[in-house]
Amino acid sequence: MNDDEARAWAYLSRVAEPPCPHLAALVGCVGPVEAAARVRGGAVPQSLRSHVEARRHIDCAEQDLAILKRLGGRLVTAGDEEWPALAFAAFAGVTGRPQSHEPLVLWAVGPARLDDVAARAAAVVGTRAATAYGEHVAADFAAGLVGRDAAVVSGGAFGIDGAAHRSALATEGLTVAALAGGVDVPYPSGHATLLRRIADEGLVVSEYPPGVRPARYRFLTRNRLVAALSGATVVVEAGARSGAANTAAWARALGRAVCAVPGPITSSASVGCHALLKDHAHVVTRASEVIELIGRVGELAPEESRPVSPLDGLEDSEKRVYEALPARGGRTADQLAVASGLPPTQVLGPLAVLEVLGLVVCRDGRWKLALR
Amino acid sequence: MNDDEARAWAYLSRVAEPPCPHLAALVGCVGPVEAAARVRGGAVPQSLRSHVEARRHIDCAEQDLAILKRLGGRLVTAGDEEWPALAFAAFAGVTGRPQSHEPLVLWAVGPARLDDVAARAAAVVGTRAATAYGEHVAADFAAGLVGRDAAVVSGGAFGIDGAAHRSALATEGLTVAALAGGVDVPYPSGHATLLRRIADEGLVVSEYPPGVRPARYRFLTRNRLVAALSGATVVVEAGARSGAANTAAWARALGRAVCAVPGPITSSASVGCHALLKDHAHVVTRASEVIELIGRVGELAPEESRPVSPLDGLEDSEKRVYEALPARGGRTADQLAVASGLPPTQVLGPLAVLEVLGLVVCRDGRWKLALR
Q: Smf/DprA SLOG domain spans which residues (chains A, B) (predicted)?
């Protein structure tokens, strides 16, 4: 990308509220430099005019690029090697969602490559009004994911997002914050330090040029980016109306796995998760399950261990005889036949097995439970 | 049922460990009185012999019936009007589960009719090692179920079962305890008073004759009865290896709805519930959802209310203009066009709508958020 192209992309990134398929179509036809010139001059198709009319006279591309340079960032577009083309290809298959278009330009700050992120990322998202349980679970999942070499994408918000980012950083893993405003606008401001760490060690990314402040509809647009960069979206806690449900809806539309973590049904912070589960989201209780869903099955977690009972693996008749023994004192084989309902001839075999296993002992013709 | 028949049924109930399809087949052929005589005399088919050999000499039918009479109970068999034939018919369709046979005899104590129970029951079951959360949820579901005229079936155990029974009684609803031992053997003994109340107001029922003590395999047999009497089985809390999972497996085999209540993934008492959810059990968070599953949809619960936002129902352009307004101070329509990215001609319409809704005010050509 030469300087003219960079200035053109920066101008185009601001002139229309993203995503703007009409603008993308023009750029696709004539390239960014010519597209920028036409937009600036007002020589654009009618369908595009209304989208760029309000801002086409604004050109602060030089300043925007200077800010980006100061942050150590870069513009990434479809022509770049790190453009996550495979991940974004899914937008083409989405119907009925008006914003289903890949970004035109991404403003990125951080050492991670976008294509590498998209090849191994899970989103861990949820409510800002998280409970201690939710933050604990978000941290646990994030640590488990990066421990299995996955990247953790989230929205940089308070609550679940922040817990996921922090835990990924603490585990020295890769984490990515997708913002609803410019990469130079730390939002929420209380996360300025956290976002700086993410930019230093992972990636902060946005469709919006520097200086743009988050707005409600920009959070929704951003959620689509979180879902698109991730093989699975895990909703850890979400209220009845949470942005996380919107991210989950994008994940589903894009053909990605939608996962929800169960929580107490008495907790309003889990209502959105349970609604997703009722709508056939995957129940996840461990990071390894998310890893399986995003297809990195090379490192499957071991099976959950189950408590072991001395009766495991016994035949039914052996269990029946064992159960027929009293807690104290002994019984003859005939008495055990009556108690268990088995014929006397079928009691001795099981008793022999139980004796070998050390579960019962025989003294003077009377059988009793072994002391343990 | 005359006295001879009653004595025959009582004898047959004890002579083979239930369920015993070979014994049921003989009774079906020759009736209970003749079947009892043949079993007593040892004149039975080879296939049945091993099942009755150990106990055929035991005849305490008179005493058993006397105990039942003292408790105010009754024998119920397929010939009785209250036999839940429709519910038990599902056993015929189950394959691959060896105990899939309807009971031969039920020992019942209490004013409720079995067929009435089976027509409107849900099972509420779970671990004995319940948490405060689990007991709260069990009580809440039981109260919600009986409040909608459903019956609550459970196993009379400590923990979830007890919480469900107690709550149903407290709400003056119908509750049924299915026992893994005789109806005169309160188990656990700490629930003697609770079981007496259930027998006084609802129903205590068992396949086992008086005096029989519960054993591990009898709990499994009992679980099949809990599932068969219920249109849905709700597992409230269950550990990694819980009898509740067995009840749920019976419910699924019998074509009944299997429901699990989510809980914290950090709680070992919810591990079994989450395993069921991963295995496609219904996620339930309210009793009304269980009611829908057992088909009593006449009394649907109202939709869960969602918090209301002033932006509900606004068009996208109206939301964008609204979001473009600063928290303090005002903006001109042209400034709002730039901020929102909408053409100036498309800002005034949304502003008018927002003004009518009382969300914005206009002073001297500058628009600002209305104070609320």
A: 75-293
Residue B309 has pLDDT above 70, yes or no: no
Q: Which residues of B touch A340 (CB under 8 A)?
A: 17, 54
Q: Which residues pair with B259 in a beta bridge?
A: B234, B282
Residue A353 has a pLDDT of 83
User: What's the pLDDT at A372?
Assistant: 58
Residue B234 has pLDDT above 60, yes or no: yes
In chain B the domains, ranked by start, together with CATH numbers, are: 1-59 (no CATH), 63-299 (3.40.50.450), 316-369 (1.10.10.10)
- The ipTM is 0.80
Strand partners, A124: A234
Contact call for A217 and B320, based on CB within 8 A: yes
Whose tokens are 């599902």? That residue is B90
- Please answer yes or no on whether B217 and A277 come within 8 Å at the CB atom: no
Name every residue whose Cβ is closer than 8 Å to that of residue A302 and which is 6 or more positions away in sequence. Answer: none
Question: pLDDT value at position B308?
Answer: 57
Mutate to test the interface with B, among A189, A217, A290 (most CBs of B within 10 A): A217
Chain B residues closer than 8 Å to A55 by CB: 338, 341
Please check whether residue B259 touches A, CB under 8 A.
no
pLDDT digits (tens, 9 = 90+) for A17-42: 999 999 999 999 999 999 999 999 99
Q: Which of A58, A262, A323 sits opposite B216 (nearest CB)?
A: A323
Cβ neighbours of residue A89 under 8 Å, at least 6 residues apart? none
Query: Of B215, B266, B277, which has the smallest distance from its Cβ to A277's Cβ?
Result: B277
